[in-house]
Every structure is written in structure tokens, then in C-alpha cells.
Amino acid sequence: TYGEICHLLAPRNVWNGSAQFFPRHEDVFVDSFYGGGGQQFEMELIYYPTTANAAGYKLPQPDSVVGTDMTNLGDDKEIYRYNFMLKGGREEDDYSRFIALCKAWSQTGTALDVQTKALMDIDQWMRAYAFVSLGSVGDMYTFGNNHNFFTYSRPADGKFVYFPWDMDFSFNRGENAALVGDQNLGKIVSLPGNLRVMYAHMLDIIDRCFNSAYMTPWVAHYQSFAPGQNYASRATYIQNRANFARNTINTQTGTNFTVAGTNFITTTNNLVTLTGSAPAAVRTITINGVAYPATWTSVSGWRIQIPVSEATNVLAVGALDIYGRPLTNFSRAITIVYPGEVPRRKTASSSTKSCTTRRFPRRPTSSCSTPRPRSASISRAGASTESTSRSRPAA
Q1: Which residue of 201, 217, 224, 258 could cross-link 130, Cys pair, CB 3.0 to 4.6 Å?
Q2: What CA–CA distances, in Å, run from 201 to 25, 131, 243, 368?
Q3: How many other CB atoms are there within 10 angstroms of residue 219's CB atom?
């Protein structure tokens, strides 16, 4: 499932030279990585020739293409079939879940956010999209023609993941090209919470490998396998592109973690709303070590609601990165004073009814007729379980 460099001996000598084995994200890849199963769709253009020779036979060049966005094209799978080719699960020929995905992509605002989260592994999509964007890949959906990617509905949870493909137009769009493309996928990436995730992955990839210090030895290594090719400029391009991306991200999200207001709050409501701003590196916000769901009101702005149950509540607000690691210098202490009525905790003595028990030789009974608990056996198969899978980002 990995690309390999080889030396090709072609039928015509003019084509002899360095080549690459580049497996597609199809059966072998899916079987080895996901254990098989699921459904896979490839977005592709429909190509057709526009000229013919004297005998009337069509010439392969020049040609034209017909493509479409991933969007609501109705309920008939035949409308989707030729631009979204079924590459896995062909026997079932089932487009129903893919059509649901396309309809979700056609939404806007909250509906778009909710429905796409239910159908997509957003974290995986944002990681892959960050890689494509950093590489300034052209001739690819949202950054060019509507083709060159697969989407796979993994069998574990049915969620779709993103496999970019045919990225031979890498470093094609310029060092300062936009980080987010167009059409419906660009719209999904641009949702504030998703854009933050993509930015966080982008910064992680830059720190790990998308920089000249890391790539310069690799550029020299691969150039030795391709006589006549000059890759020297690629290391410079990579560093300039990384610098542009980092500056763009920092400008949009800032670099400081803040909690709005003072560090001492008096409130008459026991449901307290905290707001603030966070740089892209912050993936999760914690309160006293517990992760709380944040609403991202903008690419940097967050809002969390937290209940307080004491007269004085000391909250340690912290931040974690995409790997769940605490971020240093990103902690704040907030004291919340709640002068209202503190909810009472129920105790066994206060909740137990008073009753008179009559004694019998074998079985005690009560005038309040409290039933005895029955023994129960719950098998693992019968239990309700929820499996959540989060791919660890790869470099």
C-alpha cells in the first residue's frame, strides 16, 4: 500500500527511466488497512473527444470533460453513477449512504455542521485536506477539476473518510495560494470548528515534516533516483509555503489563549457561560481536568457552559493539543461566586420513606411494600455499547 521507486524498461527506449509504483486506494489498501468491507466511491470527470479524423473516428485529443460537485442530485443512483464510480461493495450496488452524504453537503449553517459530523470522520478529512493544501496540489477537487479523490465508508461505524489521489500536480498553485478551496468541501472545511481542526493538523505537519530542514535530505535522496530531474527548488518552496500557512493561521486565530472578563465572577445563575479565544493549536478545552464541549463561534472564539454547585467555585481552565497533551502557558484560574441557593444533595436518610415492618419467621414484609431488588444478569452481547474511533494523525 506504499509507493515504490523503480527503474522502468519500457517497450520503447524513449520511455526507459525512473518510475513509481503507486497503488490506488482500492481493494488491497482497504483490505490491509480496514480489514475489507465498506463502500468506496471515486469522484471522476467524464471525458469525451471533440474531433474526428477523415474516416469519422474520434481522436483522443483534444477532449473536454463534464464534472459535478458532491451535491444533492436527487434520489436516483444512476445520476450519480458515472461521476462517482462505485469501487468497493459493487455487488450490493448501494448508493443510499453516499446519496445521504451528498445531500448533507448541500446544506448550510448548523444543518451542514450537524449532518456532516454524523456521516464523516471530520478529523481524518481535515488531516488529509491539510496535506493536500500544504502541497498546493492542483487538478484536484476544490483546487481544480472535480476529480482525483476517493471517499470510503468504513464498516466499523459507516463514516466516510477521505483518500486524495493522483497528486502529480503538487507544488502547482504557488507558495501563497489559498489554504481552503471552493465548492461544497471548501464550505465544510470553512465551518469554524472544522477550520480550526484543519489548521491544527497543518501546524502539526509543518512541525513534523513539511519544512526545509526535514525535507532537504529527502529531496537529495530522491533526486539521485531520477537523473535529469532537479528537485533542489522544492525544499525552498516547501519552507516558503509552510511560512505562509503559519502566518495565515496565526493571523486568523492569534497565538494567545484567553478567557474573557476577570478571574473573579459573581453570578446569580448556576449555569455559567465562559467565553474566550484560542489559537489553532488548541483542540480541547478542559475545566478542572475534564474536557468540556466548546462551541466555536469563530475560528478563534469559543463558548462553554458549565454548571456550578457551590457558593465558591474555583475553575482551572486548560487546553489540550490534537494528541490530548496539555499545552503549556495555556491555563487560567477563574473563581466563580454563586450567592444563590445551592442544590441539596440527596441522602439515603432523606429519601427513604418511613414505614413499619412486621416480623415473620421467614420473610420480612413492609407496610410501604418496598419491592426487593431482583438479581439480573447482563451479557456483554446484550449491553448497549458505543464504539468511537479516532484516527491518530499520521505525519
Answers
A1: 201
A2: 22, 8, 15, 61
A3: 17
